[in-house]
Task: inverse folding
């Protein structure tokens, strides 16, 4: 692992263009900024390609689905592909409606996506696997089954997959890592998965290895665990403290608190 993962990102200050869920865009922008990136949050199709040319990574969120957002996602992802910059995609509630599924497939068929992050039901829906849970917070199930779904998705879409849950799973279709850090208080605040998307995009901009991406994916649950120790079950206070710690997190603190298992 790169022992200076956070330090290097803060030195380089990569630009992340985020097509965010409208209800979480401020949190996503803050997270990108606090961990060491520079956020751009455009939503006008007429300027999106031009703005994409200065970005180092693109983060796409299906949370607020409408034709303009879909067009922005397609245009900025195509520009990122042209510039050889990574594209991160969060297929929010992709199995809930035909519109969401169709727009996800349109995106995945027209552009190269480097990382897909979602919960088990979302990743299962993309791969056509029936999963017992539904909704944006469905995460229950056997970890071995979740790993199989993640690996199948990675091979199908030729990308890295992160399945979020009490145990996070990160795979390229062959290697598999698990992140055991988890803080239940994250569920009390809307859109923390979107925040994780932004953090992943910051580090993906550095063309990091699968192992480094795994460490980056543990940043949010690590700082959430640290925040919860100070705030207990006070939801708003917990949220603010999580962002406070994110803004001052260093590599040593991350390494001292991270819980990662290499499965295969």
Result:
């Amino acid at each position: 692992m790169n022992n200076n993962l956070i330090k290097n990102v803060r030195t380089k200050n990569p630009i992340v263009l985020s097509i965010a869920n409208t209800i979480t865009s401020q949190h996503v922008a803050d997270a990108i900024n606090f961990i060491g990136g520079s956020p751009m949050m455009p939503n006008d199709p007429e300027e999106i390609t031009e703005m994409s040319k200065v970005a180092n990574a693109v983060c796409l969120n299906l949370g607020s689905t409408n034709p303009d957002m879909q067009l922005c996602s397609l245009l900025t992802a195509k520009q990122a592909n042209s510039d050889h910059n990574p594209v991160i995609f969060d297929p929010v509630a992709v199995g809930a409606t035909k519109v969401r599924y169709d727009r996800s497939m349109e995106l995945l068929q027209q552009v190269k996506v480097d990382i897909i992050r979602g919960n088990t039901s979302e990743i299962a829906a993309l791969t056509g696997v029936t999963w017992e849970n539904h909704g944006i917070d469905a995460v229950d199930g056997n970890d071995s089954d979740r790993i199989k779904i993640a690996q199948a998705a990675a091979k199908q879409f030729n990308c890295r997959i992160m399945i979020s849950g009490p145990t996070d799973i990160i795979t390229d279709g062959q290697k598999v890592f698990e992140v055991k850090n988890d803080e239940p208080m994250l569920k009390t605040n809307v859109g923390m998965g979107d925040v994780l998307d932004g953090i992943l995009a910051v580090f993906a901009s550095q063309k990091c290895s699968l192992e480094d991406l795994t460490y980056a994916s543990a940043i949010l649950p690590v700082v959430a665990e640290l925040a919860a120790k100070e705030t207990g079950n006070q939801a708003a206070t917990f949220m603010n403290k999580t962002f406070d710690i994110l803004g001052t997190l260093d590599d040593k603190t991350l390494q001292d608190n991270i819980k990662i298992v290499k499965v295969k």
